[in-house]
Structures are given as C-alpha cells and as structure tokens.
Amino acid sequence: MEKNEYLFKTVFIACIGIIWCSSCMKDEPLNTECDILEAWVADGVADDFFFTPDDRRLTDIPSDVTQLTFTVKRTTGLPALPVMFRLTDGATITPDNGSAQDFSRGPVAYTVTSEDGQWKRIYEVSVREAPLPNDSYDFEHFDVDAQGHYYEWYELNANGERDAIWASGNAGYLIAKPNAAKDDYPTVPDANGIDGYCVRLTTRATGNWGKTFKKPIAAGNFFLGAFDTKYALSNTLWTTRMGIPFTKEPIRLTGFYQYQPGPVFTNKDNQTVEGRVDEPNIYAVLYLNHDSEGNAVVLHGDDVLTSPLIVRKTTAPSLPPTNEWMPFELTFEGDSPIDAELLANRGYNLALVFSSSKNGDTFEGAEGSTLLIDEVKMYYAE
User: Fold this and answer.
1) Cα-flanking dihedrals φ and ψ of residue 322, to 5°?
2) How far is CA 69 from CA 35, 59, 83, 183, in A?
3) What CA–CA distance (Å, rounded) separates 217 from 360?
4) Residue 365 burial (CB < 10 Å; 0-12/13-18/19+)?
5) Which of 62, 77, 144, 309 has its CA 20 to 30 A from that of 181?
6) What 3-state class would DSSP assign to 171?
C-alpha cells in the first residue's frame, strides 16, 4: 500500500504540474505589436528595374514610419511586384504577404494586425523613380507627423510627389518631452525666412528624463537621411542614419544663416562650463554606400566625419553669432577618384547636416542656442 500510495502521489503531483504549466502557457498574453520590420522584393523579379540588390530591400524600418518606398530606375512597364514582409511576432498582413501587387497605379495600402487582434496599423507601400538631386533647398514644404506631435519636412520631385529626404531628432525629443507643443521642439519651421519659411534649430533642455539618462540637452538638428528612435536610449549616435543616395558629385555648398548661442554652456552631467560659448555646425560628406565586400553601409553620428568610405567632405570652420542673415560658402575637399558609373547607379550617399550645438551629439551645449537656415544651394561637377 505504501508503494502504491507513493506512486499515486507522484503521478498526482506530475499531473498538477502539467496542468499548471499548461495554464501558464494559455495565460501568456498575445503580442500587441503590429509593425513591419523589413520589406523586400525577391531576387530575380524585375531585375532590370532596380539599381542594386539593396534597392530591393528595406531594412531597419523605424517604428514610427508607415510609408515605405522602393526606388527603381523607371516605372514605365513595371510588372506587378510580390513584396514580402517580416512582421512583429504573431502579426498578420493584408493583402497577403508576398502577393503580387500593381504599384504602377500608386501606393498600395497594407494593414498589419497584431497577434491579439486588438491593434491595427496601415502602411502605404509605393514604388518610385529615383529623383534627381536637388540644386536648392528653401524648406517651404513641411507637415506634422501622423500623431501631430512635431514637424517633418519633405521635397517635391519632378512629378509633384513628396520625397521625405529630411530628418531631425524631433522623434527622439518626443521620448523626453511627450507633452511638448510642436513649436517647442528642437527643429521647427520659422516664418521669418529670407523669402517665406526657414528652418529654426534650437537646443532644448530634456527635463527630468535627460537628467536621469545623462542627456540634459537636445540640439536642434536637421539632415539628409532618417532618424531611428529604437536607439534613443541605447546608442543615441545610431539614431541618425546620415545621407541619401546621390547621383552627382558636389563641389560647393552655399546658404544663409543666423545664430545666437545660449547663455550657459553645460556638459553631459548638466554642469556649467565656465568660459565656454556654444557654436553651431554645418557639414556635408559624400561617401560610398557599400564596403569592399559589397555590404550596404549607412553612416551614423559616430562615423559620419571619420569613415574611410568618405570621398568628399566639407565643414564650416566658423559661423559667428549674428541676428542678420549672413551667407556661408563651403567647398568640398578630397582627392579620391569618383567612379562615374557607380555614381550614376546610386553607389554614393550624400549627408548634409545642420546643428544648433556643435557638440550636441555628446550632449554638450547651451540651452537656447538657435540656428536659422535658409536658401541652401548645392553646386555639382560638370
């Protein structure tokens, strides 16, 4: 009896354990995320329409981006494309993942539904012809993000379509100051431009959040490229994806600016640095967007001025404070040969960067430092 009783107790406890584990598994909440993490067109489909294999794939899609664009040589005669997606765990997508869609008629809307079925997100996927580089930027085209928190800028291409080539750190400031009014963000439009609007960059305090994470200020910044919020806490220099594909060799950059430094310069510990005066920054680089092994490359805040892939570079040596519009002119330097065929096929990226605090990437600067930028023009080699 003792042996049978022991066996009974052992089996009973095991059954209870199985039931408990099963209950735990059933009670585990379903995923509430509904994001597209990656999108691509399979190799072998419409090969003649894409410049490079990397143009077929969109990776590291920022969590706040819902408009995805593939760039092709031409859209005339473009066949239906089967676009495939990598989604957050458990999410589903409509139209079906990998189904062929006709993008020649305009963007295709995809709805992503979370695993728990409670959340949906609509993405617009489009295909466009590669735009020609602009000669000038007057910053007249801007809107607010989908949630209405902060401003975003875009250019209009030859077809009147929006090219979202400009980015700023506004999406990162939202994390620090979620209740800030959109006009109190570091990068905003200003109606007092030379002719119409200009861009106003202001170094802002990040409040208690900034003190906690030793990021007491957020410099106003504005650049060609994209901002990725997923690195906002772990590696802020990687939030800035610098540069866009370019097909011309820049030789000179001009524009107009106004600048006033804030009254108190502080370091990353929010301590005053006596005698230090804040400075703005303007620079641009042209770099190879693939390494020697053919891997795609995007420069970030930590290597945008030092990467060995840079072939041309220019940096403003000094921008004295002024309340009047003053011209600036920068000349690109570098003697590395430019591969004309590679350039024509978007093998180089151009990064153009403006900042209200030169050392804002290391969270040093003066709250209130303000840089206004307008009528920027790029000149190219013949």
Assistant:
1) -160, 145
2) 16, 12, 11, 29
3) 8
4) buried
5) 62
6) helix
Q: Which residue, chain included where needed, has tokens 């290391």? A: 362
Rg (CA), the chain: 25
Phi, psi angle pair for 108, to nearest 5°? -110, 130
Q: Could you give the maximum distance between any two Cα atoms of the chain, in Å? A: 100
| Tokens 């007092």 sit on residue | 192
pLDDT of residue 27: 60
**Hey, what are 44's tokens?**
């072998």
Does the pLDDT value for residue 8 go beyond 80?
no
Please, are residues 121 and 68 in contact by the beta-carbon 8 Å criterion?
no
**Residue pLDDT, tens place only, 29-59:** 889 999 999 999 988 899 889 887 888 999 8
Task: With a cut of 90, say whether residue 21 has pLDDT above it.
Answer: no
What six digits make up the tokens of 368?
């209130």
Partnered with residue 145 across adjacent β-strands are none
Q: What is the dihedral of CA 292, 296, 302, 307, to 10 degrees?
A: 30
**Beta bridge pairs of residue 227:** 240
Residue 109 identity: A
Helix count and strand count (H, E) for the chain: 4, 29
In whole angstroms, give the CA distance from residue 217 to residue 205.
Answer: 4
Kindly tell me the burial class for residue 314, based on how many C-beta atoms sit within 10 Å of its own C-beta (0-12, 13-18, 19 or more): buried
Give how far Cα 264 sits from Cα of 203, 211, 249, 255, 359, Å: 11, 16, 40, 28, 14
